[in-house]
Design a protein that fits this description.
globular, 4 helices, 15 strands, alpha/beta, 256 residues
């Protein structure tokens, strides 16, 4: 008599490490996705070994600096093709910053140094519903997530954008329900806008995964709302600071 099969744990969240690899990529295509979002496709034979297992993975981009040492920023791989050796990145354009300056002036043939991803945190696609929240900086990860979910699963998104021109359409098999918060320029009131949009949120039946990324105050407020006030399981909640108002820095996962 054979051994009984043990059913795998449901709702797993697995950390997977990758070999850290640096690459020099060449700009192949530049597209204005919306007035404030620029999509850049890069390529190199070295991308044949590129690995990104999670929608919110990030790579390090190294932008030229006037002071000699390059400036590093974290960006989400929006899409990649290891057979064609291409990587697509979306840049939210702001008034200032090395990423915006580079993306605004990028031309076919330009080069960019990247590193990573260092690892992935893989969330099982067996939850009964997904709630994805963020601002413009989270759209690459959020869009990739919505596009890769299984057919029919409820995917609710709540995103702060400047105006209706910044809305994006994702090709997905999931049952996608988007809420776009047209709040004008980013400000400290973004937290208020997001919490107001979530006030009437009623969880669909079953177990759900809540994800939020964007400005640090938004991520912290959403974590407090779901983990502390609504007692949503911590293991089924992930919040990340992609940027902090008035400061520069890398992505930071909020675990408290």
């Amino acid at each position: 008599m054979g051994k009984a099969r043990v059913a795998p744990d449901r709702h797993s969240v697995e950390r997977v490490s990758h070999q850290l690899v640096g690459r020099t990529l060449t700009v192949l295509e530049v597209e204005s996705l919306t007035p404030r979002m620029r999509r850049i496709t890069l390529g190199s034979p070295s991308l044949a070994g590129f690995v990104s297992l999670s929608p919110d993975d990030h790579v390090k981009l190294f932008f030229p600096s006037e002071h000699g040492e390059p400036t590093m920023r974290d960006f989400t791989p929006r899409a990649f093709d290891t057979e064609r050796c291409t990587l697509r990145l979306d840049f939210a354009l702001h008034d200032t910053g090395p990423a915006t300056r580079w993306a605004a002036g990028a031309r076919v043939g330009d080069t960019l140094e990247i590193g990573g991803p260092r690892g992935s945190r893989v969330v099982a696609d067996d939850f009964d519903w997904y709630l994805l929240i963020g601002d413009e900086s989270a759209l690459a990860a959020l869009g990739r997530w919505v596009e890769t979910l299984r057919p029919g699963v409820p995917a609710i998104t709540v995103v702060c954008i400047a105006d209706a021109r910044e809305k994006q359409v994702f090709a997905t098999r999931a049952c996608w329900s988007p809420t776009w918060i047209e709040r004008g320029e980013p400000s400290a009131r973004d937290v208020e806008h997001v919490l107001a949009a979530l006030a009437a949120f009623q969880s669909p039946p079953g177990d759900g995964f809540v994800w939020c990324a964007g400005e640090a105050a938004i991520a912290r407020a959403v974590r407090a709302l779901f983990v502390q006030e609504r007692a949503h399981p911590r293991a089924w909640t992930r919040t990340s600071s992609y940027w902090k108002r008035g400061a520069n820095g890398a992505h930071e996962e909020l675990e408290e």
